Amino acid sequence: xxxxxxxxxxxxxxxxxxxxxxxxxxxxxxxxxxxxxxxxxxxxxxxxxxxxxxxxxxxxxxxxxxxxxxxxxxxxxxxxxxxxxxxxxxxxxxxxxxxxxxxxxxxxxxxxxxxxxxxxxxxxxxxxxxxxxxxxxxxxxxxxxxxxxxxxxxxxxxxxxxxxxxxxxxxxxxxxxxxxxxxxxxxxxxxxxxxxxxxxxxxxxxxxxxxxxxxxxxxxxxxxxxxxxxxxxxxxxxxxxxxxxxxxxxxxxxxxxxxxxxxxxxxxxxxxxxxxxxxxxxxxxxxxxxxxxxxxxxxxxxxxxxxxxxxxxxxxxxxxxxxxxxxxxxxxxxxxxxxxxxxxxxxxxxxxxxxxxxxxxxxxxxxxxxxxxx
Length: 374
Ligand code: SAH
Ligand code: SF4
Hints:
By secondary structure, the chain is of the alpha/beta class. The chain has helices at about 10-15, 20-30, 45-55, 115-120, 125-145, 170-185, 200-205, 225-230, 240-255, 270-280, 305-320, 340-350, 355-360; strands spanning about 60-70, 75-80, 85-90, 95-100, 105, 120-125, 160, 190-195, 215-220, 255-265, 285-290, 325, 330, 370. Strand 11, helix 11 (about 305-320) and strand 12 form a beta-alpha-beta unit. The two termini are about 35 Å apart. About 45% of the residues are buried.
């Protein structure tokens, strides 16, 4: 079953081969410009609508929706056709609205501190499964506006690949989705950000593409010994190689590079960590996004406290590096990278209680990392 946003225009034309040719445009516009499901395309004959409803089913089935920040942050957990689960977070502000999408169910990169990494890899998402997350955000914004939700909020303006999975390990489908989001949903490349843990061949390939998307690299450590322990991929692509790939991306695209840094108490928030990071970031003109680590069951280490986060930011500033502390959003819903999916899986399996030490280390309310994208 291809799914409404998996199928390309040619596939749609084949599906509508028995129809007048203008129907292809009509349905395509219905899907992308109006973000309607086939059954909502009331301008189509009823029989055709019913046929398309069966032929182009939604790829995402809602399992849970959780809201925070008086409804401005919403997190969806979806089940895919084969039962795999992924999550999407949508954050609305007066001046922008950002959707954070997943690119894989699970992740094979095994970063020690990450809930998705701890759960392991299930499978790649298809183009349609990624695009439909963006469509869900656009539909949700339109529905809220139609319902007269209080406060001015922006329409969907930014897409960040910072949900579950490593987008550059699923390159072709990620790029297929980026192209669709740009060409058909009308978002500009500078409003699309790909976050990677450092898949160097993927960064090099990105540099050859036409669309100059933003690149965010999840660094977390600026020396190889420390990074090897946090991000296993560093053993394959050590910092010198990663930095060189970032440099060529910058040279090719002229886009601002950002480094993500999850501050872990006593691990990467020391004075010398700031010095190492500054030495690496300054020559690249990279911007640093700081967020305190969200403890996860497999890595129950505390995030740096707010004062320590500010101190680290200020230290970077003194060393000539711009850094932003990410605003936390969604403090009462489950959080970063894979945690909602992990909890839902746990609920279904009704596991034995976690050891007390782990329970104590995992806060009930975990903040959602808000990507800083302008
Ligand atoms: N795989 C890609 C994109 C998804 S992860 C990547 O790693 O960049 C999105 C972001 O969440 C990354 O910056 C990642 O390092 C961060 N992250 C993962 N687990 C986290 C945690 N427990 N606390 C804070 N940030 C976390
Ligand atoms: Fe995968 Fe990113 Fe999590 Fe690392 S941080 S395990 S790359 S999702």
